[in-house]
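Notebook B, p. 112. Complex prediction, attempt 2.
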Amino acid sequence: MSAFDELSRILRERHLYGSAAATLGWDQETYLPPAGVEHRAAQLALLSGKIHALGTDDAFRAALEAAEDEGLPGQQANLREIRHHFDRATRLPQALVEEDSRASSLAKAAWARARAENDFPSFAPHLEKLLGIAREKAEAWGYEDEPYSALLSGYERAATTTEVAGILETLRPQVAEIAAAAVERSEAVSADCLHGPAPVEAQQTLNREVAESLGFDFGSGRIDATAHPFCTTLGPADVRLTTRYDEADFTSSLFGILHEAGHGLYEQGLPGDDAHLPSGSSVSLGIHESQSRLWENHVGRSRPFWEKWLPRARELFRHLRAVELDDFLAAINRAGYSFIRVEADEATYDLHIILRFLIERRLLNGEIRVDEVPAAWNELFEELFGMSPSSDAEGCLQDIHWAMGGLGYFPTYTLGNLNAAQLFRSAMADAGVSAAFARADTAPLLAWMHDQVHAKGATLLPQELMESATGTPTRPDAYLTHLRERFL
Amino acid sequence: MSAFDELSRILRERHLYGSAAATLGWDQETYLPPAGVEHRAAQLALLSGKIHALGTDDAFRAALEAAEDEGLPGQQANLREIRHHFDRATRLPQALVEEDSRASSLAKAAWARARAENDFPSFAPHLEKLLGIAREKAEAWGYEDEPYSALLSGYERAATTTEVAGILETLRPQVAEIAAAAVERSEAVSADCLHGPAPVEAQQTLNREVAESLGFDFGSGRIDATAHPFCTTLGPADVRLTTRYDEADFTSSLFGILHEAGHGLYEQGLPGDDAHLPSGSSVSLGIHESQSRLWENHVGRSRPFWEKWLPRARELFRHLRAVELDDFLAAINRAGYSFIRVEADEATYDLHIILRFLIERRLLNGEIRVDEVPAAWNELFEELFGMSPSSDAEGCLQDIHWAMGGLGYFPTYTLGNLNAAQLFRSAMADAGVSAAFARADTAPLLAWMHDQVHAKGATLLPQELMESATGTPTRPDAYLTHLRERFL
């Protein structure tokens, strides 16, 4: 047995515990009875401790060092990534890890209450605490340009604040301009044609048929209902999507499923035998989100897609029988300013992200204080959207991310949009892919994504992956072209 | 911290892993995508190993011995039971445990195939293997009268073959006589009135209302659908029932839920803070089954119950609107001989158990060989039921128990019937319980079961529990009286 095999053995055991914990987490969101929460928390705390220990203890360190000394040529990318994650995990003092876990637990509960009661001051001390912990973590992890990079790169491997700030600065004026034009044009468009009786069962039928036709394998996956839709992977052949149903608008669950199925297709496309290794793992949130946005927006809001699916939707939902394809497409692609990020359309979405990035970066650099967040939010919102939220509940309290200690997470949404457009453009440059796509046959598109993205796992860094798949690192141009084509 | 606290700490950790494994097992039966089975098996194997090690290793032995030396007066029953289970677990050589696990895995697959193809000879070598392992286990565990006791007492703590054989010998002629009369009387009764369109949603509504009215707490439990109904406990406030739906007969899922809810009420009634200790655990299968049979048969097939629920059922199922209460009661309480145990009615059920007990006891004692099982089964079936199965699929291959190595399990079903009748008689001797029951108010009955059975956990041995609750150990008389009243 090679030293790498021994390292793999430990990682496989760790992955078994990790996927067991993921299953308990999935159950908690879908089916756990309310009173079962306390015991579930105790189970998850035990498993988390076990998983952390298996990946950081002396036995793991020794196995990793032995595998590095051995230096199997085929495992260099895996060894690089395993070392990276080991170093990140072991650079944090145990006391800080525990404080972080406790503080974010309390902050999540405080946030939910604060949002419900529109009471930012009651949440502020928690955010202050998490901000302090985030700064300590950034110092422990290290960074080249500024502390924010240490956090950001936990979600987007090897990304720096300088790069991301550059991209968002380029985007800001152009997205603002496109959004303004799109919103103006959309004033003449009504979404009324989408609304009508949509029994859950009929939505489930359509969602399943669509997901299946895109290549989502229900032999290795399923769909359940939750308040907050997500995709989670419980094993190499067990990918679970969730959605929620609006019985007056079938597009809500359908676009949700297109988004989550995009994540799911990536997960189902990873090399299953390597599920415990970087080579069988997704590479970053910005790449993951590219897959969800690709299927949701580039495929799911396209004309060929609805040429195929509108007739089927008309069979399931009577109110669509009088709706023409052009009106339907206009309705699903209309734009409007809104206060809530998760309800934002494609044209305005990135403005929400830019705002959050500007605020969290300033917070971390000490340029604004926690108690100044609501004012900073509202001022920026006015600048970007030309309107101001009437309450913090629909302003700076709307997202859970900061309450989870997730500073640095938001930019990956916009990176996902950019990557999606850039990957889609490159795929469509293949005549076979684009000819099939024109007939709503997306099998060649999926095969392209599989070869260029899914099959790579995390053996390339995100920007190496983008270069290898599209010829350049992530740039705004493909995305801006896409937005202009869609909205102008 | 006392030595007992340290022992408890280990048991609590073990219980967290155990309940995590139970959750994965539940998911496997309810929602796991087909291709996820292999990874799930690997997760469960890892967790089983961990759970076994935590309860048998040197650290556990030392903690147990220290707690025994400490001898806290309030923990004597827990210490007795913990010692008992530790000794049983550690008396088996590791090689035998692994061989057993492998052999029963293979046997289960072979059994499913053999049953589908009515091919006993292909299953025989597996049964032979498991029989050999069962004999080895019995020798390792030890017994007073005969090897069968060592297996039986794994399901029914402290039970002996001699006792159980005595009870079944007493029952056999009397049950046979009652069954014959019941079957004859039932010839004039038709079950047609039960049959009619029963949409799953309407069944779910009724099942939930009924389970809730019996006291099943949906804040700490739920119902899902599976091919084979069961009740499983995933945590002290997380009890899950399953059922299956026949869309032409609502009574199938309803009586299934009454049965499983009986198990669930026991589980929800156990002292939750002691879930990791014997004092918070169920005591035996024969007591567990008493609770399911009590709510299924003594409550759920009674006149007061249907005086309350038939009007509600008529609202949900139109075909019942023309059905009178007396005809309905006659239909749900009719008897008939059938080949399949799980479809058997109350009057004939124990004949199926007696047959299995006679065969497995003889097998274990070497009085018959594995290849003689089909002939022995058919001959006994003819004796007990006056008819003979036309195939082994509806004969000796029908149950999974032997394929799981579960020799000694079957008698606990009949012990459950006896215990149910005896506990019900004692509860009804309380004027408050019986007066309420006459109005279909079962809250006092549940409170009685809670005090006399559920709250005790496993601090009393099953027969001590029966004595404490009813004044005598398990005897056939209350059950025979019940059968006579119901069927004659």
